[in-house]
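Forwarding the complex inputs:
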Amino acid sequence: AVATVSAALERRATSGTYSPSKQETSSAPPGLGGRLESEVWTELKPPPPCERLI
Amino acid sequence: QRKVCKKIQKQINVRVTTMDAELEFAIQPSTTGKQLFDQVVKTVGLREIWFFGLQYVDSKGYATWLKLNKKVQQQDVRKDAILQFKFRAKFFPEDVAEELIQDITQRLFFLQVKDSILADETYCPPETSVLLASYAVQAKYATYDPDKHKSGYLANDRLLPERVSSQHKMTKDQWEERIQTWHAEHGIMPREDAMIEYLKIAQDLEMYGVNYFEIQNKKKTSLYLGVDALGLNVYEKNDKLTPKIGFPWSEIRNISFNDRKFVIKPIDKKAPDFVFYVERLRINKRILALCMGNHELYMRRRKPDTIEV
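Prediction (whole assembly, two chains):
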C-alpha cells in the first residue's frame, strides 16, 4: 500500500491534465457577458476572515 | 492583542513590494501563502484580488508564483534573512474599462503595464509609445499648465522605451516636446481617467498580458508558447507578435503534461494534437496553472448573472 501511495504522489508530481471544454457551463451564453458585477466576482473568492499573522 | 502560541515559533521576516509600496511582515513557519496574500491585500485595501499573486525567485532563478494552499516556508523560496516577494497582476482582464473597478486595482495595473512597456518587455510602436507617455504624464502632472510646466519639466521622467528613444533621429528635447503637445491635448482629464486611457490603448498591444514560455516542438524547433486570457498561442522564435497557431479555450478538449512533454488536444477530432517539450517539469506545471486560472476567469466573465429572487 505504501508503494502505491508514493507512486501516486510521484505521478501527481510529474503530470497533470485539465479539460477546458468539460468546464464550460452549457447555459453560458456565447460571446461576452455584461459588465462584471462586483458581487458575482466577490463570490469567487469571499473576503477573507481577519487573520493575524503575528 | 497578541495570539498566545503554545510553541515559541521562530518568526520569518518577509518583504512584499507592490508597484508603489514596500510592505514588511513577520510570519510563522506555519503561515500559508493565502494567509500572507490576505494580509497584503488587506493592507493595501484591494478587493479585486483574483487578478493578483505573489511572485518570488526560486532557488533555480525562475520567477515563480507563490502557491496559496501551501505553507510559504515549504515552497522553493530562497532562505535569505528576509523573504522577498513581488505583489503583481498574474491574470489580465479582457477589457480594463469593464473589469477594473477600484482605483487601487487600476493604479497597480497601470504601473505594472507601464513598466513592462518601458522595459521593452511588451513591444510598443513609436507613435503609440508617445501617446502612452502623454497619458502617463497626465496621470502624474494632471492638467498641463504652461506656467507650471516649463520647458524641461519632463527631463527627469522615464517616458519612452529605450528602443524607441534610441532608434530615431530625435533628441531627448524633441521627444519631450511631442509628449508635451499631447499632454496639453488631454486638457483637464482626471488622473484616474488618464490611467484607464493608457490601459485601454496598452491592452490592444499584441504582447500585452501574454505569458511567454520557450518550448520545442517534436522537430526540436524552438518556439514560444503564449498563455493569455483567451487561450493558448504558438509563436515562431523571432516573432512574439503574430501567433502561428491559436488555441482559444473553446477549441481545446484538454491540455496535459507528463514530465517535460506537454500536449494540447483540440476538440476537433480531425485536428492533430499539438505536442511540445519544455526545459523543466516545473515550467509545465506553471503553464498548466496559468491555463486553469485564465480559463476560470474566462468562464466567470461569460456566466449569466444569476438573479436572486
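Chain A touches chain B at residues 14-25, 27-29, 31-38, 40-42, 44-45, 47-48, 50-54 (CB under 8 Å).
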